[in-house]
Write a structure and sequence with these properties.
The chain is an alpha+beta fold and 153 residues long. It is 22% helix and 16% strand.
Length: 153
């Protein structure tokens, strides 16, 4: 039996600030956050910078746990909360010889037929109505801004 983590009365921590590590002990998510070292020999594109914090480390962990079960992942949140950067950073780890990654941006001009043609361009037709990624590979399709049915104002 695993007891709940000991929360101090003066702390704002909750059960969601902890995970059970490989040894079966409670570990605060902040212990999993690696220190960020900005490269001194290059300039990174601003939109690709992700400074590790508890929220994006936890999100990355959950994406990994869900995708290992070959389930789909849906991230929701306010604009600017690094959802796209986290997903693209996670998918960079895929071995391109075994797992393809495609990104599709939705907008107010996205129509079902155009989306279908885009997806069909990524896959091969197998038998009948069966489609799949080429060469027996796996494929992840990332749909960004799926909530954009009308023009942003």
């Amino acid at each position: 039996k695993l007891d709940l983590p000991k929360l101090h009365t003066d702390s704002e921590d909750s059960i969601f600030d902890y995970l059970v590590d490989a040894s079966g002990e409670w570990l605060h998510w902040s212990k999993r956050v690696e220190q960020f070292h900005y490269p001194s020999d290059s300039v990174l594109p601003f939109r690709s910078i992700l400074v590790p914090n508890v929220d994006n480390v936890r999100t990355d962990f959950l994406i990994d746990a869900i995708t290992k079960q070959r389930k789909s992942v849906l991230l929701i949140g306010e604009p600017g909360t690094a959802k796209t950067v986290i997903v693209k950073g996670y998918c960079k780890r895929y071995d391109p010889e075994q797992h393809l990654f495609k990104s599709v941006n939705f907008s107010s001009t996205t129509h079902p037929n155009g989306f279908q043609r885009t997806i069909e361009s990524y896959v091969d037709k197998r038998m009948g109505s069966t489609y799949g990624p080429p060469g027996g590979k796996r494929m992840t399709v990332f749909i960004d801004d799926i909530n954009m049915p009308i023009i942003n104002e």
